[in-house]
Amino acid sequence: MVALRDRDTLYIGIDGGGSKCRASIVDADSRVLGTGVAGPANPLHGYAQTIDSIVRSAALALADAKLPPETLGELVAGVGLAGVNMPRLYNEMASWAHPFKKMYLTTDQHSACLGAHRGGDGAVIIAGTGSCGYAWVNGQGKLVGGHGFPHGDKGSGAWMGMEAVKYVLMALDGLAEDSRLKGEVLKALDAHDANEVFEKIGGKSSSHYARLAVPVIECAEAGDPVAVAIVRDGAAYISDLADKLLELKPPRLSMIGGLAPRLRPWLAPHVVQRLAEPLDAPEIGCVYFAQQSLAQESSDTRSVTEEADTKALFG
Predict the structure, then answer these.
(1) Are the beta carbons of 80 and 253 closer than 8 angstroms?
(2) Is residue 129 situated within a structural domain?
(3) Stated pTM of the model
(4) 29 and 89 part of one domain
């Protein structure tokens, strides 16, 4: 068991997205004590699933830290979730009767930005299951993109998967050229005709489509013209996101997400030159958000108390 001091405040950072939910427990000395990973946590695709993934990832992090389950109620949680940039979803999650000592909720874009720049100002391009750009400069946040799959998220894994499926269906109908990509997507889906493709992918979530990004990228790297066209189109959009963020003059720009390393060589050269490695993971950014929020809350409380004391003394 980890020995805890009475004065310790334990934080848990929880980063929830369309594919997974990752939680890390951090102590007062910024040591990561334990980490847990559970399923998707985007309330747009299911409130119950999101709650379950948050609680499961936290429980797994506690177990990894060798802390008893009841420690859950002692944790100060920073939670960064996909989808909560929509006010309805934010309010829904904020009203959850959570099991933590305190919970501070923000978007996954903001927490990822704080993580990438160790709590400071900067900008991030997120390229994973979904995509978006986000900047935090001088206390102001700016989101570019992030409109969700299938309406937005261009350049993301889900978008690439969707584009690949659209192409394959056209190729199966004889309306598009055959390519290596067609065979690789059919193999990945274990499908042979259009009906089987639809049965495997129709109505599925963004994370299901994102799994097809791997064959798209691999075929593009091998020079397949159809895959190259898809990846170039997505990378051009991501480069445009970066340019829009750079207009805000952030001190640092990072790219994060599962697709980021594979997409980087396809970006505009001037964007690649500006990219800096993220300093910490998104779930640690959630911890920074919780720490900053708790400090602000304490400061506000002190201000109210001091104002009340002044009135009591001087009327």
Answers:
(1) no
(2) no
(3) 0.85
(4) yes
238: containing domain: 157-276
Tens-place pLDDT, residues 276-293: 999 999 999 999 999 999
- Judgement on whether residues 272 and 289 belong to the same structural domain of the protein: no
pLDDT at 309: 47
* Residue stretches of the chain with pLDDT short of 50: 1-7, 308-310, 312-315
| Residue 254 bridge partners (DSSP) | 124
Give the Cα separation of 13 and 266 in Å (integer).
32
Which is it for strands 21-26 and 10-16: parallel, antiparallel or unpaired?
antiparallel
Q: Is the domain of 181 the same as that of 245? A: yes
Q: Are 39 and 56 in contact (CB under 8 A)?
A: yes
* Interhelix angle 157-172/194-201, nearest 10 degrees: 160
The tokens of 221 are what? 């790297």
pLDDT of residue 303: 56
Shared domain for 105 and 17, answered yes or no, is yes
The pLDDT score that the predictor gives to residue 191 is 95
Q: pLDDT tens for residues 12-52?
A: 999 998 789 999 999 988 899 999 999 999 998 899 999 99
